[in-house]
Amino acid sequence: MPKIFRDPSFDSTLDVLREGYPFLYNRSQRFDSDIFQIRLMGLPAICLHGAEAAELFYNPKLFIRKGAVPRRVQTTLMGVDAIQTRDNGEHRCRKEMFMALMGPASRERLMSLLAGEWQRYAHRWEQLDKVVLFREAQEILCRAACAWAEVPLAEDEVSKRARDFGDMVDGFGGVGPRHWRGKQARSRGEKWMRSIIRAIRKGKLPVREGSPAHTVAWYRDADGELLDVQMAAIELLNATRPIVAIATYITFAALALHEHPAYRQLLRNPADDYAEVFVQEVRRYFPFTPFVGAIVREDFTWHGFQFPKGTMVLLDVYGTNRDERQWPDPEVFWPERFRQWQDNPYDFIPQGGGEYLTGHRCAGEWITIEAMKQAVAFLNDGIRYDVPAQDLYYDLTRMPTLPASGFVLTNVRATGKGALAALPMPAAGSEKAAAMGCPFHKG
Ligand code: HEM
Predict the structure, then answer these.
(1) Which pLDDT value is given to residue 317?
(2) Which residues in the chain land under pLDDT 50?
(3) Which sites bind heme (predicted)?
(4) Segments forming the whole domain that contains residue 240
(5) What percentage of the chain has pLDDT greater than the value 90?
(6) How many domains does the chain have?
(7) Is this prediction's ipTM beyond 0.90?
(8) Given 116, 177, 302, 346, which residue has the most CB atoms within 10 angstroms?
(9) Exposed, middle or buried, 410 (CB in 10 Å: 0-12/13-18/19+)?
(10) How far apart are CA 284 and CA 291, in angstroms?
């Protein structure tokens, strides 16, 4: 039986916070191994890296999620006992609810709401001395997400709600005030969503059938019961809050355009969907999710390594996206690499891997890609702007991270151009994607 490499540190909890994103990647390189063991919060944890290990991790017969997500992440990022922590039929049923919101017509509606907001903000920015793109993108995404979900949002609430959505995400990797801010934001957000669920159920808030608010409010769980109001509030937040989180990727996309202006011309070629490979490279190159966790369902052995029942297992998301076996020169920003990519569900996992319906892969991946492509078209053609001297450094020891300035634009002029109309939906057809439950390919 091969011996598993063990990190010599007695407990790595503080090292994870100190080293941030590259913590697992550094060790997989140091041990030259896709599998090694650490201790986290006093308990052993098996760490996995790379596509083959990701395939193992996303086998739902081998792992469960109940007990895998630390309380501090549940009380900020995702909500306590939400879909991310569910298994088996209970998870599948809840995931069907989320995937029902991701069909072509629903996505098209969101993209068209977003297009209108970018346009409106472009004119507003013309009057401002400077614009912090990250903050403005959060507001744009918040307005569109609420309108799409049919969650009422008063004008004077916009910046507060957008900030709260952002703080829930920002709180997951923080300690002290940052974590506390995330918890406060979540508790305000859940209270808000509880009032909406109650109003819908009492018939006081009319919402369209099929809209996210209606779907979540009237969804019946695997046991045939309506979700309790608190759980429905959490899941309605899970359908809206991550849309606002796309602001992080949009800010990184702006940074990529700034650092690699040569791509601007390629993105303008109507004969080539260059935006697709560009945003995929943004999702690969820039850090967002560091790792994901699961618990071993029953004892099993993989390549001779033992996985005892109940052990925590961490999959290195950040490092798998820069695994040299699949991504040569991983520290080079090079969108063309995606021209050859085989659409493998395990080697590129910025939003999780494996299958959508039977696994925990991100329900909103296709929304994310489409919203990013639209934002890149807007930044490239919908406005002209200057990028003044500012601190664009993003700190890999901070999770989540962002260019320190939030990406400041000055002298913004709206061009009236840019691919701001809703993007055409990709054609149906890929059998592989359909088999994986990809919402792009559901007719
Ligand atoms: C900002 C971009 C986003 C990132 C980086 C991201 C990342 C992730 C990751 C890493 C997971 C967990 C995968 C796993 O546990 O194995 C996840 C799950 C999830 N995401 Fe996203 N996500 C994003 C956007 C979205 C959007 C736009 C939505 C919906 C509108 C969404 C809804 C969900 C849901 C519901 C889950 C739970 C899936 C499950 O447990 O089955 N996400 N996301």
Answers:
(1) 98
(2) 421-443
(3) 362
(4) 5-441
(5) 89
(6) 1
(7) yes
(8) 346
(9) middle
(10) 14
